[in-house]
Design goal:
The structure holds two protein chains of two kinds.
Chain A: H1 6-31, H2 35-57, H3 61-80, H4 91-111, H5 124-141, H6 152-165, E1 174-176, E2 179-181, H7 184-219, H8 229-258, H9 267-278, H10 293-296, E3 299-305, E4 311-317, E5 319-320, E6 325-326, E7 345-349, E8 369-371, H11 375-380, E9 382-385, E10 390-393, E11 409-412, H12 421-425, H13 439-448, H14 454-466, E12 468-470, H15 480-489, H16 503-520, E13 532-534, H17 536-549, E14 553-561, E15 577-579, E16 583-590, E17 598-601, H18 642-697, H19 702-720, H20 730-737, H21 740-754, H22 761-781, H23 784-791, H24 795-801, E18 810-814, E19 817-821
Parallel strand pairs in A: 12-13
Antiparallel strand pairs in A: 1-2, 3-7, 3-15, 4-14, 5-6, 7-11, 8-11, 9-10, 14-16, 16-17, 18-19
Chain B: H1 8-12, H2 32-60, H3 63-82, H4 85-101, E1 111-117, E2 121-123, E3 126-136, E4 145-151, E5 154-160, E6 168-177, E7 181-185, E8 188-193, E9 200-205, E10 209-214, E11 228-240, E12 245-251, H5 263-269, E13 273-282, E14 284-289, H6 299-318, E15 322-328, E16 342-345, H7 350-357, H8 369-379, E17 385-391, H9 396-404, E18 411-417, E19 424-427, E20 432-436, H10 441-448
Parallel strand pairs in B: 2-10, 14-15, 14-17, 17-18, 18-20
Antiparallel strand pairs in B: 1-3, 3-6, 4-5, 4-8, 7-10, 8-9, 11-13, 12-13, 15-16, 19-20
The chains are: A alpha+beta, B alpha/beta.
Chain lengths: 822, 451
C-alpha cells in the first residue's frame, strides 16, 4: 500500500507531534523532570519511524511491530535510566528491570507519591505508551478506508495517561475574560487533545477533496474560471469560526456552573488508602500491648482544650467474621477531605504512638489542621471515611506503617454526645448473627428475659459490665503496673485471662455468665453473679455481637476517653496527657431506622471478684432406709419353643419394617416424580405428534382427511429417517420412495383432490388404515433405539416450519435452444 | 408449490363449472409453523428498520462527528463519576458544536440533473465535452449549491446559482481523456452540511456513465498475407477458375481447363462456356499481447504495444478475417505454476475489441509469453499467422520458445516495442522480429515484410 499524498502525511505527522506535546504537558505533574521531554521525543521516533518504513516498503505489520519492539529494547535503558549506563555490568539487570517495568510500572506509579522524577524505572511506562500509541496512530492513519479514522484513539490515549495517573488535587480557578474557568490547565489539555484529533479528521477529508479536484482539473485541457468562489470561501470560513466560537462559549460558560470539582477523584485515590489499610493489623487484637509494663506509662499524646465528655477515636472496626474485628478495606471508602475542621482541641503526638491511624474526635466536617514542619505533607496524605468515622494517613506505601510521629500536632473539632436517648426508643430488627453460631449467647439473653428494644440492649450491656471482671493479662509477670494501679484504687485480685476476641472467646464468656447464673439459684446477689473475666477487647467484642444478635448494627471503636478520671473506671479517662493506660475500647450501636451511632462503654468492673460456685451433692435431711432383703438366685425360665421367641422378634421386626417400608415407598414415589418431571420436556414432542395425527384423522371433510393421511405418512417417513426431498408431487415422491402403500395412498390422495366427485368417508377411512399399517411396518422394521429416535424426532416439525423456498427457475426445452425461464 | 392442508382446496375442486375442474393452489401454514413464520417476518422487519436507521445516521455523521459525540459522552461520564470539571467543559463544547451543526442539514433539493456526454468512446489524448443541465423542478426558488460530479479519480465541482422555479442552468464540462482506460462519470451528488464538515447529508442522483478511451491505432495496409486457399474457408470475392462456390459463366478462353466447361449453356449459346468460381480462403490470425510488466522498459512501451495489438486486431476485423486476440489472465502469486488462464478479447466488431482493450494493464502476476502462446494454439487450433507483441526486455530464448510452440506452417511475427529505437526487421528461421520505434512504423514494417 503506498504512502498517502505528502500533504496528508504532513498533516498526520503534525497531529501526532501535537498529541505527544500534549501528553508531555499533561504528564508533567507526575514526573516534573526535563528528562520527560527526551523520553517523549525518543518514543515518538521509535513509533513513527518503523510505521513509515513499513508503509513505504510494504512490509507486513508483524515485521513493523517487531522493529518497534527491537528499537524500544535498545533505547529504553539509555533514555529512562541514564544512571545505570555508567555501570556496564549492571546493564543487563537494568534492561531486565526496564522490561519488567513495562508490566508492573503502572501499578508502582499509582502507589507512589508524585512527582516521581526519574526514580527507578518509572519513566518506562511513559516511553512504552508513547512508542505504542505513535506507532499505532501512524499505521492506522496511513492506511486506507474507514479504519484510518480509528487513529484518534491512540492519539487521545497519550494525554489521557497524564490525566489518569495524575493527582486529584484541584487547581485554582482562572479568570479568562468574563468566564471563571475551574481547572484551567487540565481543561486546556483535554480540549486541545480533542480539537487536534477533530482538526486532523476534518483536515483529511478536506485534503482528499482538494486532491480529487486537482486531479480533475489537471486532466482537462481547459482551465475553467473560478469567479465568485472567493466570497464563497470567505463566507465559509466566517461561518466555521462562528460555530467554533459558539461551542467554546458554551463550554466555558455553562459547564463550570454544573460541576463541583472539590471532591475530584483520581485513580491513585482509590489505590493508596486501600493498600495501606490492607496491610494493617487489627488494633483491637493488639489491645493488650498497651497494658504491658513497657507501654503502660509511655506518653501517647497530649490533648489541650475543653476535654470534658470528649472521646478521641483511634480506629473504628466494623467487620467481624468470627476471628477479629477489622476494617474491611474494600467496603470502606477513604477519601481526602478538602475542608478543615474547626479548632477546639489541640493534639500533640508523644513518643510512644505508632500506626497510620489519626486520633480525632470526629472524622466528618473536614480534615484536621496540621501544624508544625510536616503540616503540608500530612495534609496531603490524610484520608478519612465519614461513614466509619475514622481517619488515617497514607504517607508512603513503600514502607507501610509510617504515620504520625512524635512532635506532630494538629487541631480538631469537638463533638457532642447525644446520649442513649435515641437508642432507648428504637427497636432492633432481625438478628444478623444466628443462634446456631452463638448458642451460649442466645441462652444467656433468653435467661435475662428482656425484650429486643434499645433500652433492653442498654440494660443487657450494663449487666454484662457488672457481671464481668477486669483483667488485662494471662500471667502476672509483666503486668505489675496495671495491677498496682487497680489495687491502689480498691481491693483487686489478679485473675488470668486468655487474649483474643474470636467467637469461641465470646461464647466462653457468655457460657461462664450463664453457668454462674444457673448455679447461683433464685434471686442471687449481684456479687454472686460476677463470673466472666476479660478486658475491653473481649467485652467490647461481646457487646458488639450481642447488639447484632438483637438486630442492631454495631461496631467497635478503639480510642481514649477524655476528661476527669474517675476512680471506679477500670480504664481511666485521660486528662491532658494520655498514656497506654487510657486506651479503651467501646461499642457503637445503631438501629436501622436511625442515622446516629450511640456510644456504649463496655469496660467491666474490677471491684467484686468472681466467686466460684461449685455444684455439689448433699445428703437429704430425712434419709430413707432402703430395704435390702436377701435375694435368691432364680433360674431363668427355659425356652418353650421357637414361636414365642420368633413371635417376639417378628413383632419387633414388623414394627421396624413398617417405618422402613413407608420410607422406601416414599422414596420410590419421590424418585418417580423426579423422573417424571425430568422426562416431561421430552414427552411434549410425542404428545404433540399424537395430537396432530388425531386432528388430521378427524377432519370433517373426507378430502382433507385423505390429504392429511398422505401428510401423516410423509411425516412418518421423515421421522424414520428416510430421505424425502421437498417440492415433489405426491406421485413423484411415491415413486422415489418405492413403497407400495405410499404409491397407493398417493394415487388416492391425487384422486381425492383432482377428481370430479369428492371422496367419501369410506375412502378417508381406507387411507387412514393404510397409514396405520405403514406406521406399524416402519415401527417393526427398526430397532428399539430407532423407534425411540423416530418418536422423539423433530425433523417432521421443522420441515413444516421452514420458510417457503424461492422458486427455482425451471429449464424448459424449446426446440434447439435451451434457456432458463423464470 | 404447496402443501395443501387448508380448506381452500375443497372449494376449488369438486364443483364443475362449465365442465372444467378448477384447481387453485394455495399454501397455508397453521399452528407452530405459522407462528414461526410470523415471528421470523416480524424480526426481519425490525432488523430491516434498524439497518436503515443505522445507514441513515452513518451516512450523515462524519468521523469527526463521531469523535465529538464520543468526547461529549466520555466527558459527561467523567464529570459525573469522578467530578472532573474539564470533562464537563469538553462535553458541553462538543455537544454544542454538534447541535449547532444540525440546522445545516435541513432542507431538500428539487433539482433535476442531466449529464449528456458528447460521445462515450474517444481515442486517448483527446478531450471530450459534456453538458450538464440543472433544472429547478420545485415551486420555490432554490439557493445556490455545489454539485459534485466524480470523473474517474477526480472530482469536478459545479456551482449552481440561484434558480427561480422551473429555471434551468446549463454548463459545459471538459473531460480530459489523456490516457487509455475507462472513465466512469457519476453518480452526481449535492451535499448539504456545515462548513466545518462535521455533519453532511448527500443527495445523490444515481447512475454512472462510462467513457471508453480507446488506444491510439494506426492504419495497416491491407494485405493478402496469411490467406491460404482452403476449401473449408470463407468465400471471398476473388474469382478463380476452379473452386467450390459457383459464381458465373463466361466464355472460353484458351488455357482454361476443359473440366469446367458447362455443356448445357454451351449447347444453348453455341459457344464454349466455362464456369467461374469464387475463391474460398482461410485465414485465422492470432495476436498475442504480453502483459508481463518486466518485459517492457517503460509504461510508454506498453502503451505502444497495446496500440500495436489494437491496430492489428481492428484492421483484421475490418478486413473480415478471423482474428483471435489473446492475453494472459490474472494469476495470483500462490497459484503461479498451477493455474493457466487465458483471456480472449471479443472480436465481433472493431469497437468491441477496442472497448475490451481499454482496461488492460501490465502486471507482474501473469503467465509468461510462451505459455500464453501455447494456450492460444489450443484455443484456436488452425492458425495461419501469429503476431506476438512484447517489449524490448523480453529474453531471446523465451521468444524463440514461444515461436516454436506453433506448428511449421504458421507464420510467426514478433513485434518488439521500444520507443525511440530504430525500426528494423530481422528474419530468423522460425520467426520474424520487427522492432517498432513509433506506432506509424508498424505499417511500413509489415509492408516490408510483405506480410
Amino acid at each position: 500500500m503506498p504512502l498517502p499524498s505528502p500533504r496528508s502525511l504532513a498533516l498526520t505527522l503534525a497531529a501526532v507531534a501535537a498529541s505527544v506535546a500534549l501528553a508531555v504537558w499533561s504528564a508533567w505533574p507526575v514526573y516534573e523532570t526535563p528528562r520527560l521531554v527526551i523520553v517523549a521525543g525518543v518514543g515518538a521516533v521509535i513509533g513513527v519511524g518503523p510505521a513509515l518504513l513499513t508503509r513505504a516498503r510494504s512490509w507486513s505489520t508483524w515485521a513493523g511491530s517487531g522493529l518497534v519492539v527491537a528499537a524500544f529494547a535498545v533505547a529504553v535503558v539509555p533514555t529512562t535510566m541514564p544512571g545505570s549506563l555508567s555501570d556496564p555490568g549492571g546493564l543487563a539487570d537494568a534492561l531486565v528491570a526496564a522490561l519488567a517495568s513495562v508490566v508492573t510500572g503502572w501499578k508502582h506509579l499509582l502507589t507512589i507519591t508524585i512527582p516521581v522524577g526519574d526514580y527507578q524505572a518509572l519513566l518506562v511506562p511513559f516511553l512504552a505508551l508513547v512508542a505504542a500509541c505513535t506507532w499505532g496512530a501512524t499505521v492506522l492513519a496511513t492506511g486506507r478506508g474507514r479504519t484510518a479514522s480509528l487513529a484518534v484513539l491512540p492519539l487521545l490515549a497519550m494525554p489521557a495517561f497524564g490525566m489518569a495517573f495524575g493527582s486529584s488535587t484541584p487547581e485554582a480557578s482562572a479568570q479568562w475574560g468574563p468566564f471563571t474557568v475551574p481547572e484551567p490547565t487540565r481543561a486546556t489539555i483535554v480540549a486541545a487533545a480533542v480539537a487536534v484529533c477533530a482538526a486532523w479528521l476534518l483536515g483529511r477529508a478536506r485534503l482528499d477533496r482538494s486532491d480529487a479536484l486537482r486531479i480533475a482539473r489537471s486532466q482537462a485541457a481547459t482551465v475553467r474560471r473560478r469567479g465568485g468562489s472567493m466570497s464563497l470561501a470567505a463566507r465559509r470560513r466566517l461561518v466555521s469560526t462562528a460555530l467554533i466560537a459558539a461551542a467554546v462559549y458554551v463550554g466555558l460558560g455553562i459547564a463550570p456552573a454544573t460541576v463541583a470539582s472539590e471532591d475530584r477523584t483520581a485513580l491513585r485515590d482509590e489505590v493508596v488508602p486501600a493498600s495501606v489499610i490492607a496491610a494493617q493489623p487489627s488494633p483491637l487484637s493488639a489491645y493488650r500491648s498497651w497494658f504491658t509494663d513497657a507501654s503502660y506509662d509511655a506518653v501517647l499524646l497530649t490533648v489541650s482544650g475543653a476535654l470534658d465528655g470528649q472521646r478521641l477515636r483511634i480506629a473504628t472496626l466494623d467487620s467481624y467474621e468470627g476471628q477479629s474485628f477489622t476494617v474491611d478495606a474494600d467496603a470502606a471508602s477513604f477519601a481526602r477531605r478538602p475542608t478543615v475542621q474547626s479548632a477546639d482541641l489541640t493534639v500533640t503526638i508523644g513518643p510512644a504512638y505508632t500506626g497510620v491511624w489519626v486520633p480525632v474526635a470526629t472524622a466528618s466536617g473536614g480534615a484536621p489542621r496540621f501544624l508544625g514542619a510536616r503540616a503540608s505533607e500530612l495534609a496531603d496524605a490524610y484520608y478519612a471515611d465519614e461513614d466509619l468515622d475514622t481517619a488515617m494517613l497514607a504517607l508512603d506505601t513503600v514502607d507501610a506503617g509510617l504515620g504520625l510521629v512524635a512532635g506532630d500536632s494538629y487541631t480538631i473539632a469537638a463533638t457532642e454526645d447525644d446520649g442513649t436517648a435515641t437508642l432507648a426508643t428504637a427497636t432492633g430488627g432481625d438478628a444478623t448473627v444466628s443462634e446456631d453460631d452463638y448458642p451460649a449467647l442466645a441462652a444467656w439473653v433468653d435467661q435475662q428475659s428482656v425484650g429486643r428494644t434499645g433500652a433492653d440492649l442498654i440494660e443487657l450491656v450494663s449487666r454484662l459490665r457488672e457481671r464481668g471482671y477486669l483483667s488485662h493479662a494471662a500471667r502476672e509477670a509483666g503486668a505489675e503496673s496495671w495491677i498496682a494501679d487497680l489495687s491502689s484504687r480498691g481491693p483487686y485480685v489478679f485473675e488470668p485471662v486468655r487474649a483474643g476476641h474470636t467467637s469461641a472467646h465470646v461464647e466462653a464468656l457468655f457460657q461462664s455468665l450463664l453457668d454462674q447464673e444457673l448455679r447461683a439459684g433464685d434471686d442471687p446477689s449481684d456479687e454472686l453473679l460476677v463470673a466472666a473475666v476479660g478486658d475491653d477487647e473481649k467485652f467490647a467484642a461481646s457487646a458488639a455481637v450481642l447488639a447484632r444478635y438483637l438486630g442492631f448494627e454495631s461496631r467497635v471503636v478503639v480510642g481514649i476517653r477524655l476528661g476527669q478520671a474517675d476512680a471506679s473506671d477500670g480504664v481511666p479517662a485521660c486528662d491532658g496527657t494520655c498514656t497506654g493506660a487510657n486506651v479503651t475500647a467501646w461499642v457503637e450501636v445503631r438501629a436501622d431506622s436511625t442515622d446516629a451511632w450511640t456510644v456504649l462503654d463496655a469496660t467491666p468492673q474490677f471491684e467484686s471478684t468472681p466467686t466460684r460456685i461449685r455444684q455439689g451433692e448433699s445428703l437429704p435431711q430425712n434419709a430413707t432406709d432402703a430395704d435390702m432383703p436377701a435375694s435368691e438366685v432364680i433360674e431363668p425360665p427355659s425356652v418353650q419353643g421357637d414361636e414365642t421367641a420368633d413371635a417376639a422378634t417378628d413383632d419387633e421386626a414388623a414394627q421396624e419394617d413398617e417405618p422402613v417400608a413407608l420410607r422406601i415407598a416414599l422414596a420410590g414415589l419421590a424418585l418417580s416424580l423426579t423422573l417424571a418431571l425430568l422426562a416431561a420436556p421430552l414427552l411434549v414432542l410425542p404428545v404433540a405428534k399424537v395430537i396432530r395425527r388425531s386432528r388430521r384423522r378427524r377432519a370433517k371433510v373426507p378430502e382433507v382427511a385423505v390429504v392429511g393421511a398422505w401428510e401423516e405418512m410423509v411425516d412418518a417417513y421423515v421421522d424414520a429417517g428416510l430421505d424425502v426431498p421437498e417440492r415433489l408431487t405426491r406421485g413423484e415422491l411415491a415413486d422415489l420412495l418405492e413403497r407400495d402403500r405410499a404409491l397407493v395412498l398417493a394415487a388416492m390422495a391425487d384422486r381425492a383432490v383432482f377428481d370430479l366427485h369428492a371422496p367419501t368417508s369410506e375412502a378417508a377411512r381406507e387411507s387412514w388404515r393404510l397409514v396405520d399399517a405403514e406406521r406399524q411396518d416402519l415401527a417393526r422394521r427398526g430397532s428399539r433405539w430407532r423407534r425411540l429416535r423416530a418418536t422423539l424426532s423433530l425433523r417432521s416439525v421443522l420441515r413444516r416450519a421452514r420458510p417457503a423456498p424461492q422458486p427455482v427457475p425451471a429449464l424448459v426445452n424449446t426446440g434447439r435452444r435451451t434457456h432458463a425461464q423464470h | 408449490m404447496t402443501d395443501r392442508t387448508g380448506s381452500h382446496s375443497y372449494r376449488a375442486t369438486g364443483t364443475p363449472s362449465s365442465g372444467a375442474t378448477v384447481t387453485r393452489y394455495d399454501s397455508e401454514r397453521r399452528g407452530l409453523a405459522a407462528g414461526v413464520e410470523r415471528g421470523r417476518t416480524a424480526i426481519d422487519r425490525g432488523a430491516e428498520a434498524l439497518r436503515r436507521a443505522w445507514d441513515a445516521v452513518d451516512g450523515t455523521v462524519s468521523p469527526a462527528g463521531w469523535l465529538l459525540l464520543g468526547a461529549a459522552v466520555a466527558g459527561l461520564g467523567a464529570a459525573l463519576a469522578w467530578h472532573w470539571s474539564e470533562g464537563a467543559i469538553v462535553a458541553a463544547g462538543a455537544a454544542m458544536l454538534l447541535l449547532v451543526c444540525v440546522p445545516f442539514l435541513l432542507g431538500t433539493h428539487t433539482y433535476a440533473v442531466e449529464l449528456d456526454l458528447e460521445r462515450d468512446r474517444v481515442v486517448a489524448g483527446t478531450d471530450l465535452s459534456a453538458t450538464l443541465e440543472i433544472t429547478n423542478r420545485g415551486r420555490r426558488s432554490s439557493l445556490p449549491a455545489v454539485l459534485d460530479v466524480p470523473v474517474g479519480d477526480g472530482l469536478v465541482e459545479t456551482q449552481v446559482p440561484f434558480l427561480r422555479p422551473h429555471a434551468s442552468h446549463r454548463e459545459t464540462l471538459t473531460i480530459g481523456a489523456a490516457r487509455r482506460g475507462i472513465i466512469s462519470v457519476g453518480p452526481m451528488t449535492i451535499g448539504r452540511g456545515d462548513p466545518l464538515g462535521v455533519l453532511r447529508r448527500d443527495h445523490t442522483w444515481p447512475g454512472e456513465q462510462t467513457i471508453y478511451v480507446h488506444p491510439v491505432t494506426t492504419s495497416i495496409p491491407s494485405t493478402s498475407a496469411g490467406l491460404i486457399r482452403d476449401l473449408e474457408g470463407q468465400v471471398t470475392r476473388t474469382i478463380v477458375d476452379s473452386d467450390l462456390s459457383f459464381h458465373a459463366i463466361r466464355e472460353y478462353l484458351p488455357g482454361d481447363s476443359r473440366r469446367h466447361v458447362n455443356w448445357k449453356s454451351t449447347a444453348r449459346t453455341g459457344r464454349l462456356m466455362v464456369r467461374q468460381y469464387e475463391e474460398t480462403r482461410r485465414s485465422r490470425i492470432a495476436v498475442v499481447l504480453d502483459l508481463h510488466a518486466g518485459a517492457y522498459a517503460s509504461d510508454d512501451d506498453f502503451e505502444m504495444a497495446v496500440s500495436v495489438v489494437a491496430s492489428l486486431g481492428s484492421q483484421a476485423v475490418r478486413d473480415g478475417r478471423e482474428v483471435v486476440v489473446a492475453t494472459s489472465g490474472e494469476i495470483a502469486d500462490q497459484d503461479r505454476g498451477r493455474i493457466h488462464s487465458l483471456t480472449t478479447l471479443p472480436t465481433v466488431s472493431s469497437r468491441a475489441l477496442l472497448d475490451a482493450m481499454c482496461p488492460l494493464e501490465s502486471d507482474a502476476h501473469v503467465m509468461p509469453l510462451d505459455q500464453v502462446a501455447s494456450m492460444t494454439l489450443q484455443a484456436a487450433p488452425e492458425l495461419s499467422l501469429v503476431f506476438l507483441v512484447t517489449g524490448a526486455q523480453h529474453a531471446w530464448a523465451d521468444l524463440r520458445r514461444a515461436a516454436l510452440s506453433f506448428p511449421a506452417d504458421v507464420q510467426v511475427i514478433v513485434a518488439r516495442c521500444e520507443t525511440g529505437a530504430e525500426p528494423s526487421l530481422k528474419t530468423a528461421r522460425e520467426m520474424r522480429i520487427a522492432t517498432v520505434g513509433m506506432l506509424p512504423d508498424l505499417g511500413h514494417l509489415l509492408l516490408r515484410a510483405s506480410v
